[in-house]
Amino acid sequence: MRKRNWRLIAVGVVLLALAVLFFLSMRDMTPWSNDPVALMRTVGEVCGAVGGISLVMIVFGLIGRKAPV
């Protein structure tokens, strides 16, 4: 039997929510940018990387570790 790591799952969910909020907040700032396409490309890369890391953390937390025998 494996024991889930709830702290890792919680941190993954929080990071995923922060990545989505960051993307949405930066989307509203594009009219004031000198180069909105480059801005959103950079924001998308950052949010994608953070979102990917958070999904990996959630999966590892759900898999868990072996329970002591």
Short description:
The chain crosses the membrane at residues 43-63. Helices cover 72% and strands 6% of the residues. The chain has helices at 6-27, 36-63; strands spanning 2-3, 65-66.
Describe the model:
The longest helix has 28 residues, at 36-63. It contains two helices and two strands. Strands 1-2 form a two-stranded antiparallel sheet. It is mainly α and 69 residues long. The mean pLDDT is 93. Keywords: Membrane, Transmembrane, Transmembrane helix. The chain crosses the membrane at residues 43-63.
Structural class call reads mainly alpha
Q: Count of helices?
A: 2
Indicate the low-confidence ranges by residue numbers: none
Helix-residue proportion? over 70%
Strand order of the largest sheet: 1-2
Q: Which whole number gives the mean pLDDT?
A: 93
Q: Gyration radius, to the nearest Å?
A: 17 Å
Number of strands: 2
Shape: rod-shaped
Keywords: Membrane, Transmembrane, Transmembrane helix
